[in-house]
Amino acid sequence: MTVSYTLKVANSHFGGFSKLLFRWKGSIYKLLYKEFIVFVVLYTVLSLVYRCLLSAEQKRLYSKVAQYCNRSTDLIPISFVLGFYVTLIVNRWWAQYTSIPLPDQLMCVISSNVHGKDERGRILRRTLVRYANLSAVLILRSVSTRVLKRFPTMDHVVEAGFMTQDERKKFESLHSDFNKYWVPCVWFTNLAAQARREGRVRDDVALRLLMDVSGRGACGHRDTAAGPASPIPAPSAQELNLYRAKCSMLFHYDWISIPLVYTQVVTIAVYSFFAFCLIGRQFLEPLEPGQEGELDMYVPLSTLLQFFFYAGWLKVAEQIINPFGEDDDDFETNKLIDRNLQVSLLSVDDMYQNLPPSVKDKYWNESAAQPPYTVATAAETLKPSFLGSTFDMRMCEEPEQSQPAEALPSSPRVHTPLLTRFLAAASPAVSIKNLGRGGRAHAHLRRPRADSGSPSPRSNRPEDPEAVAAIEEEDTEDEESQASEPLMPGGPLKAPQLSGLSEGHKKEPPQIQVKAPSSESLSADGQAALEL
């Protein structure tokens, strides 16, 4: 029987877990006391042999061996190996529990979809849920020792009412070298199809159920080779398939164990560690007559606690590696079988179309329903409801921070040092400086202004003040650099001025005299282009 102590730890109080230390059933004391006694006896025997039977020379030799064994314990990674192994075992233990098939969802689907208050309808519903429970019993007989002891033969299964004599003959006539726990699931699908033909199922969900179930794998995933999925998935198909998939997972968990080599490595690591401790943790006499020795306590308290922790950790993994046995904390599979059969038959038989009258509820005329509290829970009404972690932020302490702010288009944005470095190290081909030069060199590619008679579709788009300020700064630097370098008459054009020429002119650059135009001779468009 599973040891449950959930109520004892419902509330945290002083010494809450300390009360659990005095329990015997399911405790670490019951699990480990035999190994602990063996370790204490072996340690005591070695200690007596060292103290009473060995000569001085033998004690000196034993001391050297003990020191070597004590140093060797640090070389065994027992915490890492054992901790990882126990974590794997605990995850597997919980996964096995969640794989136990429960008929709760399936019985609700059967009760709502298979109709008929007559004897035939009742037989169909009870037979369908009985087939589901029979499949669970057959798989649990294969993995659980408790269930196998309860139903050692198929005669016991028939006597318990999970199977009739005719069904047993049909079951035994099917020859297969593998486990036949899935046979009742196939009977379930065929009986559901028969109920559809008889009109007990009033829509096409059952037919799609058969197609869907036949095209799914062992783990509940659809096999793409079986054809396209049904456009209207059947809830009963999905529930039966999940039920069958859980039975299959139990079978595979029982078949595929944790690799034996891993269990052997962990066991050898723990046993060898404490074998070294038996020799190396003895209280030794000093090797030299005048040398000061360690404190002789006779009882190695720290070593015994270490054995209790590490060996107990290994025993925990040993107990839950197969939770379908007969240990104190193993799953109560027989109780689950009794519960599943009782509630499933009750839901599809006594509860079929047996509904209480539908009336107005207590809060019919109330907009906000508030169930009453007892005196013991009245203090909970004083606590405000949780509305979010930022709901209680005080923004009224600084009213100016809550005022709306308008964007200032003329104010330049301050760049961070990292972004400034990035802009300074940008490629020359795409930098703002070369972009401005390219605009002056390619005057014929410049976008026409809005007042030139042909407005651009993007002329009404607001300009980026940051980009305009950067371009103006670059143009100012270019003008200053050009003013500091006088133009030579008849000198060749510079590289930025040659960018707009064709390939043929680049081969033989002509000698063109360039004269800097004055601001008075430029037109309005020219001055605007220069400013841009």
TrEMBL record:
Membrane-protein topology: Multi-pass membrane protein
InterPro entries: Bestrophin, Bestrophin-like
Cellular localisation: Cell membrane; Membrane
UniProtKB keywords: Cell membrane, Chloride, Chloride channel, Ion channel, Ion transport, Membrane, Transmembrane, Transmembrane helix, Transport
Molecular function terms from GO: chloride channel activity
GO annotations of cellular component type: chloride channel complex; plasma membrane
Transmembrane segments: 36-54, 75-95
Main location as per UniProt: membrane
Catalytic activity: chloride(in) = chloride(out)
Sequence ranges of Acidic residues compositional bias: 471-482
Chain residue ranges for the region called Disordered: 436-532
Function summary: Forms chloride channels.
Family designation: Belongs to the anion channel-forming bestrophin (TC 1.A.46) family. Calcium-sensitive chloride channel subfamily.
UniProt protein name: Bestrophin homolog
